[in-house]
Design brief:
The chain is mostly helical. The chain contains twelve helices and no strands.
Length: 457
């Protein structure tokens, strides 16, 4: 920023000594006391133009920046939004309520329709009881995995002897056997469940297929025992020997370790089939529709709580928004007031700059007189009155915006006095509106449950 320069700097910039010498050579009348020379007048114009003019320009720029910054505040608008928050509350809460109502109605219709499907399914199949099944599928599959791995590890020991890869090769062979047993168990459970179907044709077909799968599974298990026994004779032709031995004499296994493999595989097959069977209700399809009904029942039960939580969430969002607006109002008010104080300080500094500039002009005139005296110019002796500024001709700062903002500050101070009360009223309005919405949601849930037969009246 341009400031009042030092006297020596101004003397050098003005070249006062050269001016005095030029005036002496020009033969200016020494007794002319009523007018100043051109050089003398240039001292005043220099200070006014080059010093005060630039200082004024910078001070005015600072003042304009402060005015522009104050013009960006929106305290009135924010206060109006806090003081009259009802439209905002109605818009937010109303929008969320409309979504919740449509969601609850849709969930009630879906739940009611699926319950009707369940009742139709039970009536059509002559079922008068509730479905019996295991809720946790994770535990079920964990047990299945444990059985498969345990069977694999036990059989791997017995099959490792005839494998080129030793225990690793036996493990892969045993794992394949376990997977085949797993498939047999799944089919057995499926056909056994269909044996309880109300349709006699389906029931009879399922019994035939169940017996077929059981016979195939038993044959496979015995074949595993014959294969283990054939490994003891010739590992390279074990498969062909096992098939021949199985066809000639299915129970003709003479190796004890092979019988252990048969027993292990048989027990694993039975356990897997039982596990697949008990995980769902014995009537086919009953578990699936019951799971869907219970899932919708849980969703419906949680729907009301979620709706209440959603309304509470909207209330918290609005309250936080109001609190942020109040915080913004306070921050802008503090900045606005501080900006006015800075603008007044800029104006005071400018007045001080004018006083300093007059002092600089006096110093320059004194130096002019002193140097003139040294040049034996008697004109300096008659130059008694120093040049003064004509204050009415000096540039003044434009403080129109500042005066307007001072009047605005008085209004803002009155708004700040009412801000806490307006905020409390807004918070109270939010809470009351949300409580009303919660009551209407509770009444809606009761009505939907009665209309769709989701509970007894």
């Amino acid at each position: 920023m341009t400031t009042i320069p030092a006297t020596k700097v101004a003397i050098s910039a003005l070249k006062i000594e050269q001016r005095v010498e030029r005036d002496v050579k020009a033969g200016i009348p020494e007794l002319d006391r009523r007018s100043h020379t051109e050089s003398e007048e240039s001292l005043r114009s220099y200070v006014v133009r080059e010093i005060i003019g630039k200082v004024h320009e910078n001070r005015q720029a600072e003042l304009d920046e402060e005015v522009e910054a104050r013009g960006e505040v929106d305290i009135r608008q924010l206060y109006h939004e806090v003081r009259y928050a009802e439209p905002l509350i109605e818009k937010r809460v109303g929008s969320r309520l409309a979504n919740l109502v449509s969601g609850l109605k849709r969930d009630a219709q879906d739940y009611s329709a699926l319950r009707m499907d369940l009742e139709i399914f039970k009536h059509r199949n002559g079922i008068t009881r509730e479905a019996v099944y295991r809720e946790s599928k994770i535990l079920h599959y964990s047990v299945v995995f444990f059985i498969v791995i345990l069977e694999t590890l036990l059989n791997a020991f017995f099959l490792s002897k005839g494998s080129d890869l030793g225990l690793i090769g036996g493990f892969f062979q045993a794992f394949i056997i376990s997977l085949v047993n797993l498939g047999f168990a799944a089919f057995m459970a499926f056909f056994l469940r269909n044996c309880f179907h109300s349709n006699y044709l389906r029931k009879g077909l399922s019994m035939v297929l169940l017996l077929g799968v059981m016979a195939t599974a038993v044959t496979f298990v015995l074949g595993v025992g014959h294969y283990r026994e054939a490994l003891e004779q010739d590992p390279f032709t074990a498969s062909r020997l096992a098939m021949a031995s199985l066809q000639a004499e299915p129970l003709g296994i003479r190796d004890f370790n092979s019988w252990i493999m048969v027993v292990v595989s048989g027990i694993a097959l039975i356990l897997l089939a039982a596990k697949f069977f008990v995980v769902e209700d014995r009537y086919p399809g009953f578990t699936a529709i019951t799971r869907r009904v219970r899932a919708l029942q849980d969703a419906w039960s949680a729907g009301h709580e979620q709706a209440i939580d959603s309304i509470n969430e909207v209330a918290e969002e609005i309250q936080e928004e109001l609190a942020d607006k109040v915080k913004t109002i306070r921050s802008q008010f503090i900045q606005f007031k501080a900006s006015i104080e800075r603008s007044e300080e800029i104006d005071r500094q400018y007045q001080e700059d004018i006083i300093k500039a007059q002092g600089l002009l006096d110093e320059l005139i004194r130096y002019y007189q002193s140097y003139s005296a040294r040049m034996m110019n008697r004109r300096a002796a008659y130059f008694g009155e120093l040049l003064r500024f004509e204050l009415d001709k000096l540039p003044s700062l434009n403080t129109v915006g500042l005066e307007q903002h001072k009047r605005d500050l008085e209004i803002y101070e009155s708004l700040m006095a009412e801000l806490d009360r307006a905020y409390d009223e807004g918070i109270t309005l939010v809470n009351d509106r949300c409580e009303t919405v919660k009551e209407s949601l509770a009444a809606l849930v009761d009505k939907l449950e009665i209309d769709h037969g989701l509970r007894r009246v």
